[in-house]
Structures are given as structure tokens and as C-alpha cells.
Amino acid sequence: MIINMKDNYEIKIADYDEAIKYVPKNIADGINYGAVIIYYGYLNGEIISEGRAYLKPKGMASPDEDTLNDETACLSSFKTKEKYQNQGYFSRLYKFIIEDLKNRGIKYVSLGIDPNNERNMNMYSNWGFNEYIKSTVEDSENIDWYKKKI
Ligand SMILES: CC(C)(COP(=O)(O)OP(=O)(O)OC[C@H]1O[C@@H](n2cnc3c(N)ncnc32)[C@H](O)[C@@H]1OP(=O)(O)O)[C@@H](O)C(=O)NCCC(=O)NCCS
Question: C-alpha 134: how far from its chain's center?
Fold first, then answer.
């Protein structure tokens, strides 16, 4: 798997899988302002995994504005195309994201988890997301927020 970052050119030419290709305008604006980074995992030229990191400046559609600061980024939109799931691809992208954020001076990352999704809860707990921050409700779904030092 080759790992790459989305840039404005890729936003314009995006023509891959529906679940992964869509970049809402506010997120695209956030990329231009340096507030959002979208990371992609490629396999043989195909984008198969995605993850997003929200950084300062605030006000750019971060899912967790409260926790965002100079040292803390918010992670979201983790996806692997269904047929490639459970084969370790996202794990590799996740490690790349964390290394890249560290290199940018980020010391903590937060993310929101559906507490009923046992698989994801276990995965994030194993990755060290054990510091509970808060609970929110989005589109009638409960989300528990956790933070970890990177
Ligand atoms: C969550 C998701 C992105 C993971 O992608 P993936 O490519 O299937 O993940 P991987 O195969 O790389 O596995 C990631 C980690 O989960 C672990 N894992 C796999 N199945 C697990 C399970 N049942 N319980 C706990 N951990 C599990 C793996 O061991 C790996 O951990 P490691 O890095 O310590 O080795 C993917 O399943 C997905 O797109 N799900 C639907 C969307 C979603 O739920 N996104 C997250 C929203 S918060």
C-alpha cells in the first residue's frame, strides 16, 4: 500500500468509490485554510482507506471544536472500503497519520466513537484512546469522545 495525502488537485479529479470520494465544500475549504488534512491509503492505484485530521484554525467544521488547540488534533472519518477491511490496511494508514501529526507538533489526538460498536471500541482502546472527554449526540446517535497522547 502506498500512502499519500489529498491535495486540492485530487479534490478536483476525485473519481473513486462513493464512500470515499465525497469531500464536502466546508472540508475542502478547511484543507485550503490548513485546518483539515485528508489522508489516503492507496492499493495498486486505488484509494482504499481514508482518515481525516482537524487542526487549528477553529471554525473549520471540526467534529470536536472544544478539544481542538495548538497541541491537539481531532481525528475522524476513518474508512476502509468494505472488501479490504480487516486486512491491516487502516492500521498502516493510522500509524502514518499519527507520525505525520507528531511531525507537525501535535501532541494529543481526540476522536468520537459509537459506544455500541464493540469492534471499534476495542480497536480504539487498544490504540490507547482511554481518556474519556465527553459524550455528544449527533443525528440521534450517541458519540463518546476520547483523547490520547501521541
Ligand atoms: C474501522 C475501519 C476504518 C478499520 O479499517 P480496517 O482496514 O478494516 O482496519 P485494520 O484491518 O487495519 O484493523 C485496524 C485495527 O483493528 C484491530 N481489529 C480488527 N478487528 C478487531 C476486533 N474485532 N476487535 C478489536 N480490534 C480489532 C486490528 O488488529 C488492527 O489493530 P492493530 O493496529 O493493533 O493491528 C473499517 O472497519 C471501516 O471502514 N469501518 C466502517 C466505518 C467505521 O466504523 N469507521 C470508524 C468510525 S469512528
Answer: 18
- Cα–Cα distance, 28 to 130 (Å, whole number): 31
Which of 85, 118, 121 is the best mutation target for the ligand 1 pocket, counting ligand atoms within 8 Å of the beta carbon and taking the most?
85
Q: How many domains does the chain have?
A: 1
| CB contact set of 136 (below 8 Å; sequence gap of 6+) | 112, 142, 143, 145
Q: Out of 8-17, 30-39, 69-78, give the one with best mean pLDDT.
A: 69-78
CB 53 within 8 A of CB 44: no
Domain membership of residue 14 as a residue range:
2-149
- Fill in the DSSP letter of residue 105: T
The pTM score is 0.87
Q: How far is the CA of 113 from the centre of ligand 1 (A)?
A: 12
Q: For the domain that residue 120 is a member of, what is the CATH number?
A: 3.40.630.30
